[in-house]
Amino acid sequence: MMRALWTAASGMVSQQTNVDVISNNLANVNTTGYKSESAQFKTLLYQTTQAKTTSANGETKPVGAQVGLGTRTASITANFTQGSMTDTGLDTDFAIDGKGFFAVMDDNGDTIYTRNGHFNWSLGNNGGVMLCSSEGYPVLDTTGAPIELDGEYNTSKITIDASGNVCYPDETGNPQPIGYTIGLVQFSNPAGLSRASDSTYKVTDASGEPLQESENPDLKKSKIKQSYLEASNVQVVDEMVNLIVAQRAYEMNSKAIQAADEMLGQANALRR
Predict the structure, then answer these.
(1) Beta bridge partners of 45
(2) Average pLDDT over residues 101-127
(3) What residues are paired with 195 via a beta bridge?
(4) Strands (DSSP E) along the chain, which ranges?
(5) Cβ(114)–Cβ(33) under 8 Å?
(6) What is the pLDDT of residue 179?
(7) Which residues pair with 118 in a beta bridge?
(8) 84: which residues sit within 8 A by CB, 6+ positions away?
(9) Which band of pLDDT confidence, cut at 50, 70 and 90, is reported for residue 25?
């Protein structure tokens, strides 16, 4: 019965983590580029109460008796399905249609990755204009360098085509590439990326190294849609159903603790 107490307690702790993950998904339902997460569980060690080759009479048995000792959180996995496209009407908003990620440089000079394409033009280091994220991080091109243009360009006339090429109107008014391309990368295992703040991700051994779409012909190329943002892929109805299931699982584990407590109370009362 003591074993039942600790087993049910491990289930309550795991379901609390599950509720925390679901709550985070619901809190970010309107976060641009957010990818929903789900908690995965696995069993703890099993305790053998009777070996399969022994019985009370010394006879051989085909199966043994093992009792599980509960559960724990195995991982919290991100779901990288495509979110819906939202038309913003802003020329500096970009959505990715595909598996790609934008590459930006943080304050430490490290490259991080995001699906949030809410960018802006800001003053560059050399007097020009630089394409930056909403946090002020420089957006990187296909060579890993910040996209910084000369001050002679009028940012209101700059456009980005589906391949990420930065374009500017020529004498006839037709947009032409000016030699800069927004870099898009993919990962062999995007679920292995380490989450950071502001909907950004960092590379880990599990995710593998970033693969430049422009340098890997075997990758299916993503497309950039200007004046759009990718909405969160959180499905509120599914999350509410998952929340109810987690609450009921938590409740059942608490009932198991109450049942074990009552059994212990009855056992203690036998001597009176």
Answers:
(1) none
(2) 89
(3) 201
(4) 37-43, 46-50, 65-68, 71-78, 85-87, 94-97, 101-105, 111-114, 119-123, 129-133, 148-149, 159-160, 165-169, 175-181, 184-186, 194-195, 200-202, 211-212, 223-226, 228-230
(5) yes
(6) 87
(7) 93
(8) 230, 231, 233
(9) very high
Q: Strand, coil or helix: what is 136?
A: coil
Q: CA-to-CA distance for 153 and 135, rounded, in angstroms?
A: 23
Residue whose pair of structure tokens reads 């990326």 in the numeric block: 193
Contacts 24+ apart (CB under 8 A), 209-218: 210/101, 210/103, 210/111, 210/113, 210/185, 210/186, 211/185, 211/186, 211/187, 212/142, 212/183, 212/184, 212/185, 213/100, 213/184, 213/185, 213/186, 214/142, 214/181, 214/183, 214/184, 215/142, 216/186
Residue 237 tokens read as 């109805």
Residues 262/52, Cβ–Cβ less than 8 Å: no
Please state, in angstroms and rounded to a whole number, the distance separating the CA atoms of residues 233 and 246.
21
pLDDT one-digit tens code per residue, 220-256: 999 999 999 999 999 999 999 999 999 999 999 999 9
Distance CA 190, CA 203 (A): 9
> How deeply is 226 buried, as exposed, middle or buried, from its count of CB atoms within 10 A (0-12, 13-18, 19+)?
middle
- CB 39: neighbour CB atoms within 10 A? 19
Domain ranges of the chain: 2-41+73-80+235-269, 87-230
Ramachandran area for residue 222 (φ above 0: left; ψ -120 to 50: alpha; else beta)? beta
Strand partners, 122: 130
Distance from the Cα of residue 71 to its chain's centroid: 23
**Cβ within 8 Å of residue 258, ≥6 positions away:** none
Residue 101: predicted pLDDT: 95
Q: Which amino acid is at 177?
A: P
